[in-house]
Design goal:
With 133 residues, this protein is α/β, with parallel strands linked by helices. It is built from four helices and six strands, in the order αββαβαβαββ. A six-stranded mixed sheet has the order 2-1-3-4-5-6, covered by helices on one side. The longest helix is centred in the last third of the chain and has 18 residues. The termini are far apart. The N terminus is likely disordered.
């Protein structure tokens, strides 16, 4: 099993206080990324094959993780829940790998800056919207 865990700077953990402990990338997000999040990352496929959304939710909640997904089920569920988990909902279609990586290199710092004060962050190609939680 291949794990996607990134090294991180210990001081970045304190930027999030006692809230966010890492990121859980849903199976609809590529395993390989070219940007380095400030906290550890796990990919849903590390949890098993075709893990149900409810199990991903429970795993993320129990470990104070942010779910990164294109799945609207997570963003719908967070509206009636309090973090954790937090949700970053990617609300754009498929794109070329190079464009995808370039896009995330540009917007990831802004996404992290919005955490953990915002329980839902909607990422569009032309803007980022956040709902406080």
């Amino acid at each position: 099993m291949h794990r996607t865990l990134f090294q991180f700077d210990e001081t970045s953990l304190f930027a999030f206080g006692s809230g966010v402990k890492g990121f859980l990338f849903d199976e609809n997000i590529p395993r390989q990324i070219l940007f380095t999040p400030s906290l550890p990352v796990i990919h849903a496929t590390d949890l098993g094959s075709s893990v149900p959304d409810s199990d991903i939710w429970a795993y993320a909640k129990s470990r104070s993780l942010v779910i990164i997904s294109k799945d609207s089920d997570f963003s719908n569920r967070i509206i009636v829940s309090s973090p954790p988990p937090w949700i970053v909902h990617l609300r754009f279609g498929n794109m070329r790998k190079r464009d995808y990586h370039s896009f995330f290199l540009r917007v990831w710092p802004q996404i992290e800056q919005l955490l953990p004060d915002h329980k839902l962050i909607n990422v569009f190609l032309d803007r980022i919207e956040a709902i406080q939680g």
